[in-house]
Amino acid sequence: MTIETFFEKFDLFADAPDAVAKMRELVLNLAVQGKLSYQDLNDESAHTLLGRIKKTKERLVSERKIKRQDTNTYLENDAPYPVPDSWVWTRLGEIGDWGSGSTPARGNPEYYDGGIIWLKSGELNDNQALTGSEETVSELAVKTCSFRRNQPGDILLAMYGATIGKVAILAEPAVTNQAVCGCTPFEGVLNRYLFNFLVSQRSRFHAVSEGGAQPNISKVKIVTFPFPLPPLAEQKRIVAKVDELTALCDRLAQQQEERETRHAALARASLSRFSAAPTVSNLQFLFHPSYAIPPADLRKSILTLAVQGKLVPQDPNDEPAIKLLEKIDREPKRVIRTRAVEDSEGKTPSELQPPFKIPEGWKWTQFRRLPLQTSVGIDRGRSMQGPDKAVGYFKMNNIRNSGGVDLSDLTRIDATSEEVETFALADGDFLFNTRNSRELVGKTCVFRPPSTDPVLYNNNILRAKFIEGFSPDFLDYWFRSPQGSAGLEKLKSNTTNVCAIYQGKLSGFPCPIPPLAEQRRIVAKVNELMVLVDALETHLASARATAASLLTAALVELTR
CATH number of the domain at 44-230, out of 3.90.220.20, 3.90.550.10, 2.60.40.1120, 3.40.50.880? Predict the structure, then answer.
């Protein structure tokens, strides 16, 4: 495969993560390996060119225009990769005058607010014509504190912190301090070729950096860094080809952005159309093959429609929700608490404030009216948990962030027979995470036992049991819906180390209740649609994986 064919087949790789970024990286890697441009036997060899460059360097040193830099003798086995025979490996210190400066004390106002531009490492961002800065220094600061003077065309390389390896070509005179290493390339070395090489080596600069919180790469390591020198004529061809392919990458990135923008607009329109009329005919637009609505958005939309009564039609023959609530009211209730009521739980709201309008036959009510039994679980510290214990121990991490149960990391505890009887979870138990980090507190799920082995629940989990026939799944949808989540957010209370939703506040949380028959229809429809969303998510992941595999294979072939 040629590089041209690679770009022509971009659509095959477009779904791969960071496809355009990897294409840019490939272009630079091919460029500095001699694989991007052709070799011409009529070109002056790089060995001859390097000899002239060394003579230039010696002359400048003897004239005391630059200082001699110890770059060590280059060894053939230092070569990171093979290059064409007409090229030659040398070191960065051999092909340019490198240097860094220092920063004067802030206490002397005469050093600052002068007329000389001071460029800092954070202003380097692979710019090919870097100009301007927010800060300037005086001539006194430059003379006194050894700022490095840089001229237009010089290469700047960041040496410290998160910006290590960032590069720029200077477009106007400026000074730099110890955080930037500047280079004036010798005649015979194109600054644009050196720029492309330095950008391609950023990961290697990071690999050889030193330090902890403030890593750095020293000037000594920079000047001894191996550098592949092509003939001057080939340097020009490489720079021209990189420019051509970089411009192509820019166009592809723009096309990809435009395509994603169009797809996002189509996705929003499809979601809006389905929300306004959740019919089977409109459902097909949510799973249209020409664009992909993010599965997370689909799930939110489905839950929103479900809890607003827009997902399935109402049946006037259904017994209204008020009858269900009256039946719940007649049932005996009990509340089990395993920790004392905290003062910070607050008072239960006395008035119900419905967040939105619901269909006829539905009813708004407060959460405390629904369960026949609520309880928090059993407390077992980390030292009392382990894989060799008697029974499973369900904790807040066993509730998925997106809903549902995850028992892959279920720990275990020992418990008495009485504790097992009291705290063992049963099929259909509604579980609510009362304490967690702020973004995770309020997670819910409906427990479905994978086996007959008992699983007890943690004291940061509130369990609720309901009247027979009542759907805990619908209540779970409500708590996980965007509207329900927004309501729960208002109930959160931060303590020193954790966020909580106390039971006193949760008891007044408004809940929309459909008729029992409609609850069952809603749950069935949500399950049906979520299966489609799961399939879509799997398909998208597979498409991305396939594109990534194709991209990797193409990169391997091109870099052989």
Answer: 3.90.220.20
